[in-house]
Amino acid sequence: MATTISIFNNKGGVGKTTTIWNLAISLADKGKNVLLIDFDPQCNLSIASVGDEEFSDLLERSTKHPFGQTIRDYALPYIQRNKAGTVHTHELKTPPQSGTCHIVPGDFWLNNFSDILSVGTDVVSGSGLYRFMIPQLITEEAQTINDINYDYVLIDLPPSFNTLVRSALYCSDYFLVPCTADLFSAYCVGLIGEMLPLFVEDWEQGKKRFLASDPSDELIRTKGMPKFGGWIFNGFDTRRQPGTDIKKEVGADAAHLVAISKAIEEKMIPSLQEINTYDAVPEFIITEPVAKIEDLNVMAPDSIYQNIPIKYLSSVRPTNELRKRGQWAPNQIELMQEMDAVYDSLADYIIDNFV
């Protein structure tokens, strides 16, 4: 079975889209089959990986595709008529050189879907748990129509604690938390530690009621147990130490790294360890970040604009032609290579530990 991983933080601007896209490419280039699910109404992952014009075409509604060719075409019929719709998976505009990476594109309609889902009616009562299983059901259907067993499913999420986030977490085996070098990130990881046990408590109430009427259901029995997979430090600056090749975070960025690690150790992990229905904090977890993604400055926006992940970005010309520079500077290429190595290392971390 595929290992499902949510990339989540209730804070915006922490690099979720850049992380999930480049991580997927690294996993695929290690021979893994990866499915991306864009569960964020902003649809940044779809735009980055498929292309803005191509994504606009997928949103178009027609007689053949009345709900477009996005996640909406599966979820809306399921909600309205209790009948599964059609799962559309698409190749990335820049596919991996090995392995497989497909995406189920997002849709701005997901904002409405979030309003349709009800924690009290659907989850706590146990009567609508399958409405919160959409990512899992999409995965199963995608495997069937593509005749493929995905090794990993990565879910991109909005920066909130809304029902879309609950749905994805209930379907996930692990979640990763990207953070940036700012004061609010340390607060947010503590808040995740507070909220997740409440999510699990609601699920356990609903699961108990659901299984009382249908004890043979194996899907519901095995879901609702997302484990903390570690955190990622994004968007910081470094400086080489005099006389060495060692790069260290500078000034406030170094202080934020310490603060977030401390919040993980003292607030998030203790709160998650209070969950008594499963081990939410695996033994391999450490308080330090499992990956450190340096500030890519103009490279990250250029990567998204050209729909080319960092791994392959140096092979194309930058888009800043107005500045009369038709090639990447050597230091930019070096940083791309360093960051690509970090994404590859993160992929290895997941392969080794997320089982």
Automatic annotation (TrEMBL):
InterPro entries per record: AAA_dom, DNA_Partitioning_ATPase, P-loop_NTPase
Domain of life: Bacteria
Lineage, broadest ranks: Bacteria, Pseudomonadati, Pseudomonadota, Gammaproteobacteria, Moraxellales
Protein name, as recorded: AAA family ATPase
Pfam families: AAA_31
CDD domains found in the cross-reference section: ParAB_family
AAA domain location: 3-190
